[in-house]
Design goal:
Strand content: under 5%
Distance between the termini: 28 Å
Order of helices and strands: HHHHH
Number of helices: 5
Oligomer: single chain
């Protein structure tokens, strides 16, 4: 959904939703990891919970953008059906990009497993550092 909006010339809507989701994730990470403020102390799993909550909160907002007609991409009920010919074409075009993303995510998973071996504090620091690296890119600079 986010890529569709960007590809159609609306980079602002997905950026706003992802920035809000990331900020929520940054706030929730220490709460769920360390059990601050009445939240359960979940350790490393708390980071995953915070990410799922942050992305889960973003989902209704991006659907709202698509359904409201505020973007160049508009989702209508009549468009929600299976078109096997179109689906096949999408798969043919997108298979290599998808494989690239799978490889990138597997690499990140392997890296996180190495980091996780060193404990909760290192995972929390790594998560904060990764999010810190994203901020200059949002402003258009380099870290």
């Amino acid at each position: 959904m986010f890529s569709s909006l960007r590809g159609a010339g609306d980079p602002i809507s997905p950026m706003i939703v992802l920035v809000a989701s990331t900020i929520l994730n940054i706030i929730l990470d220490p709460l769920f990891i360390f059990g601050i403020g009445g939240f359960p102390e979940l350790g490393v799993a708390g980071s995953a919970v915070a990410t799922v909550v942050g992305r889960g909160v973003a989902l209704p907002f991006i659907f709202w953008v698509l359904l409201s007609g505020r973007s160049k991409v508009r989702l209508r009920r009549r468009d929600l059906h299976f078109d096997l010919k179109t689906m096949r074409k999408i798969i043919e075009i997108g298979i290599f990009g998808s494989l690239e993303m799978v490889i990138m995510n597997l690499t990140m998973l392997i890296l996180m497993s190495v980091v996780a071996f060193h404990g909760t504090n290192v995972v929390a620091a790594y998560g904060i550092g990764m999010r810190r690296d994203i901020l200059p890119a949002l402003k258009g600079g380099a870290s």
